C-alpha cells in the first residue's frame, strides 16, 4: 500500500496519490542516472542505460519488463506500464546498480 496517511477532522485516511491533493507539499521521487545526470522518463531510456551496464532483457513474462545480469543472481522486475513505475521499483534498480542510479526528490 503506497501513499500518505493523513489525519483530518478526526479521521485517518490513505491518500494514494498525494500529488493530486490540492494542499499537498509532497515531493515526487524520480530515478536519476548519475553518470549523465539524466532523469529517467521512459522505459526506453531506462532499458538503454541498463543494457549499457550489462543487463539483458527477458521477454518470458508478458505483464512485466524483466532484466537479468549474467554475472549475478539479480533480477529487476518492473510493471509493463511506465505510469505504474513507483519508488519501490526505483530503489530496486538503485540497490542493484549503486554506481549508476539514485532516487531523488523532484518538486511535485
TrEMBL record:
GO terms for biological process: regulation of flower development. It comes from the Eukaryota. Belongs to the FPF1 family. This is Flowering-promoting factor 1-like protein 3. It comes from Ensete ventricosum. The lineage of its organism: Eukaryota, Viridiplantae, Streptophyta, Embryophyta, Tracheophyta.
Amino acid at each position: 500500500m503506497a501513499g500518505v496517511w493523513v489525519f483530518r477532522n478526526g479521521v485517518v485516511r490513505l491518500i494514494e496519490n498525494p500529488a493530486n491533493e490540492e494542499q499537498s507539499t509532497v515531493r515526487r521521487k524520480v530515478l536519476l542516472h548519475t553518470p549523465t545526470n539524466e532523469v529517467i522518463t521512459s522505459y526506453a531510456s531506462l532499458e538503454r542505460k541498463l543494457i549499457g551496464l550489462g543487463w539483458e532483457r527477458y521477454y518470458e513474462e508478458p505483464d512485466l519488463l524483466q532484466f537479468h545480469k549474467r554475472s549475478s543472481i539479480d533480477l529487476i522486475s518492473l510493471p509493463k506500464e511506465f505510469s505504474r513505475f513507483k519508488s519501490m521499483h526505483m530503489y530496486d534498480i538503485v540497490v542493484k546498480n549503486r554506481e549508476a542510479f539514485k532516487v531523488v526528490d523532484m518538486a511535485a
